[in-house]
Amino acid sequence: MAERFAQGEASSEIVKELRVSVRSVQRWRQMWDEGGPRALRSQGPASLLRLSEKQFAPLEAELTKGASRARLEDQR
What we know:
Elements: H1 2-6, H2 11-18, H3 22-35, H4 53-65
């Protein structure tokens, strides 16, 4: 993202490609303006996990099958 901001790429192009809100891109750009590329690094999860390991195991098994085997339209 930092490279895209440095190249002057329009927020509208980033919004279309990443399918995120305009506000998110504006917030990221402001963070980059104020703190450079390091400011864009992930701060980790915003909240604690809500699933236990026992609950997560079947979900993980489905996810590893891939989208087509799990009957999903695409990888999202």
